[in-house]
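debug: dumping io for the single-chain case to check the tokenizer round-trip. Nothing else runs in this session.
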Amino acid sequence: MKSTIVNLGSTRGLRLPDEILDAAGVTHAVNVELRGDEVVLTAADEHVEAEGIDGVGSADEDSVLSRIGETDFDHEEWEWPNDFDGLRRPVVSKPVS
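debug: decoded output
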């Protein structure tokens, strides 16, 4: 897919269709990484950043997990949907020449 860079004041932005963002699991934030001449965008795991950091380094794993409590996953079998495999690759944008 080819996209156009837009000017946003003193910065620039990239417009992506909702279908691309939804397929990649992007809701509010992305991780941006430069790999050679590629800009790689991946969905940021906002839940872990917002809530999980409180227990890191201050308690052992068991006490952190005990604060979470039981979930449905503790009592039911669960499988990844068949179409999930396509989301494991990051959305990659290459420079347009």
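debug: round-trip ok. The radius of gyration is 18 Å.
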